[in-house]
Amino acid sequence: SKEKGGNVPQFFNESMRNRFQERLLIENALREAVEKGCFELFYQPKTGAGKVTSMEALLRWQDPVLGFVSPSTFIPIAEEIGLILQIDEWSLVQACRQNKRWHDQGLKRIPISANLSAKHFQQDYLVSMIEKVLDESGMAPEYLKLEITESVFINNPKHVAEVIHKLKSLGVLISIDDFGKGYSSLYQLLQLPIDEIKIDRQFIKDIDHNEKKALLVASILDIARGLQLNVVAEGVETEKEKDLLVQMGCDELQGYLFSRPINEKHMVKFLSVEDKS
Ligand code: C2E
Ligand code: CA
Ligand code: CA
Ligand code: CA
To answer: CA-to-CA distance for 94 and 40, rounded, in angstroms?
Structure first.
């Protein structure tokens, strides 16, 4: 911990033992969850001009012993122990099948976004996997948006650019998640065939009383408009944040103010209420 001086080595104390044991428990439970398919996919609607315009698929894991484990806890572990490829593929399959079912039921057609770990970009399998998932689900590719973080560009940006071009040629959309949080060069990033950026929650929180954040977001929106990128604001929690972002011309808003991530049954309601354009 910070109080004890950061990375200074310590004795293997009780709290470390507990953390180590907890970590092992999660690892083992995670392996079992992957084998048995113990995950559920939730959906968080995004809005534009007061209407639902798209949604993000987010994993939920309820372990019989550990209870609810947050994706911010288990996704990094899954990345470390090599389970993330299977987990993301599961999410993608569910997301595409579900959206296709909703289309077939005559519900509002909107794109579904799925999160892709940076680990996929060290793999040749990614493009053919996405192609296979699209084929098998029968969902039109323009309704799938892949959310990737800037961290993919740290290693081998040339290779990553190639993969992104290939993904685009399948007809899917590409979104840069947690925009502004990463370390990539803006120039390099914006040279790629990207459709959307999602401004990280840290820049949105309290934007209505933080002039620097407001200035920063306004500049991002300016650049994005010039490049014809769709811009999503993440983590919109208050009316005031919403009002300012709408006034600034942000395309889509996502956050607890409008809806938390919800299960399939609740999502259906959002897809039923409005005009089915
Ligand atoms: P993310 O991709 O940035 O997803 C947005 C996170 O912000 C979600 O957390 C969502 O529930 C939360 N959120 C949405 N609106 C608000 C808000 O107004 N306020 C606050 N405080 N939070 C809000 P969640 O579902 O816990 O997921 C955490 C992270 O786990 C995600 O961050 C994503 O990086 C990762 N993740 C989730 N599902 C998957 C998946 O299927 N594959 C991969 N690779 N990563 C996933
Ligand atoms: Ca995301
Ligand atoms: Ca995000
Ligand atoms: Ca985030």
So the answer is: 9
Q: Is beta strand 173-179 parallel, antiparallel or unpaired with respect to 196-199?
A: parallel
Q: Which residue carries 């209407």 as its tokens?
A: 51
Residue 11 confidence (pLDDT): 65
Strand residues in the chain grouped as ranges (E): 39-48, 51-63, 67-69, 112-115, 144-149, 173-179, 196-199, 230-233, 252-253
Question: What is the arithmetic mean of pLDDT over 99-125?
Answer: 96
Ligand 4 mean position to 223 CA, how many Å? 21
CA of 276 to the centre of ligand 3 (A): 27
The band of 236, judged by pLDDT with boundaries at 50, 70 and 90, is very high
Is residue 59 within 6 Å of ligand 1 at its C-beta? yes
The verdict on pTM exceeding 0.90 is yes
Residue 224 phi, psi dihedral angles, 5° rounding:
-60, -40
Find out whether 93 and 137 touch, Cβ atoms under 8 Å.
Answer: yes
Q: Indicate whether residue 72 lines ligand 1 (CB < 6 A).
A: yes
Is 216's pLDDT higher than 80? Answer: yes
Is the CB of 96 within 6 Å of ligand 1?
no
Would the CB of 232 count as within 6 Å of ligand 1?
A: no
Instruction: Please give, one letter per residue, the 3-state secondary structure of 139-183.
Output: CCHHHEEEEEEHHHHCCCHHHHHHHHHHHHHCCCEEEEEEECCCC
Whether ligand 1 lies within 6 angstroms of the CB of 176 is answered as no
pLDDT at position 275: 53
User: What pLDDT is stored for residue 181 in this prediction?
Assistant: 84
What average pLDDT does this structure show over 7-19? Answer: 72
The residue to mutate among 34, 42, 54, 75, having the most atoms of ligand 1 within 8 angstroms of its beta carbon, is: 75
